[in-house]
Fold:
Amino acid sequence: MSRIDVCVAACADLFLGAGEILASPMGLIPQLGAKLARLTSEPDLLMSDGEAYLLGEHGIEGWLPYRKVFDVVAHGRRHVVMGANQLDRFGNQNISCIGDHDKPTRQLLGFRGAPGNTVNHRTSYWVPKHSKRVFVPRVDVVSGVGHDRGFHNVHRVVTDLCVLDFATPDGSMRLVSTHPGVTVEEVLDNTGFPLDVGEAGTTREPTPQELELIDKLDPDHARH
Amino acid sequence: MRDKRMSAAEVAAELSDGMTVGIGGWGSRRKPMALVRAILDSPVRDLTVVSYGGPDVGLLCAAGKVRRLVFGFVSLDSIAYDPWFQRVRQQGGIEVREYDEGMLYSGLLAASHRLPFLPIRAGLGSDVMRVNPDLKTVRSPYDDEELVAMPALQLDVALIHLNRADRHGNGQYLGPDPYFDDLFCLAAKRRFLSCERIVDTAELDGPPQSLLTNRMMVDGVVETPNGAHFTSCVPDYGRDEKFQRHYAKSAADQELWPSFVDQFLSRGETGYQLAVQGMS
Structure:
């Protein structure tokens, strides 16, 4: 078993208790996680093919072009796992640009759906390389909205080192668990703000059955 | 019924300096690229472009046609960023109105319904409000909830590309996603549709719900085979990934760009299509 399989299982666990909602995982590891969840803990999850279809176990089970995705966003029955170029301790996320918005030092994607996602439904983040470049004291442009800015439901952050959540009195980030082989110090050294590490445990390893399923979902080992 | 067939150059000639132009499609998908290329060949400038942006934005930026961009993102899909758009943004070369992509949808819907705004939650608490200081919120008259009042995105011109159309402007998409092309048309004063093939009305076969535009939404129809190239126009063709990589590489390197322009953009649409054939 490798670290990345731990990350896939951690992404699957993001959806525990989700029920019959639309899972929108961005990126390969969250996608494998959502698919694993649907095969194990959350069989009722709906998933898009990334284009205009809902794909069920046996093929197309629904039509969800982009404009209908906005209907689901507004309706709220969705849990998105987005990426983040920057993320702060309250879960504010930036995918718009680095630097001053009037003249950025680096233009990124743009706000995309982050503002709408984060005020409408549960949002998690996947960060493939946990570093101080991503985990910053203050994001340059708030795209996804964090806990200090209102009524938001930022659930968890899964990285290549650990799992984080916001279950603190002020809604700031907390270390839930480090992945097997990762120390708390390693996480702190790569995070640009203080973290509550009080009750941090170790991220669970995927079961043999889950590992088999992950291999089936990713036969070409694109995750490595 | 009126025959609305025209050329891409005639569409470009309908644009004048300073106009607001909405461009259909999404990212690097079903973009009216032949119409965009016709704009590159025209003298028009200072455009405000409204787009779910892909290489349409990059190419118009490269040619110095854009004064202001209204957008939620610019991406080539399989390549995350458009290098030309990045460069002009990093040089401070264009004004932007950057919104959440759902806000863009609301703005088009408001314009199409002739409403001054539509309420939406997206944007609240985010820097969408900070970077668009003219954006206002409203209180619900029913329960006092605060919502963003997304202003109508009124367009002077809409440009879209579909798979089929008749000469009157009834247009059909055969791929899985309509994107927002019908809304772009409804939000605009003048509406131009390019398509892979113009057919007789009776030949617009397939499910009737694939008929996305009707003739009262369209002022001009242009037949432009391969006219969305290098973006996708499924099922007629997928994205030309090899060409897109070539575009992105050339756009990222100021020394390579002149030869891209020379090879693909300097001899009109016919020259473009011949050069593309020569490349494959």
Observations:
- The first strand of chain B starts at residue 20 and ends at 23.
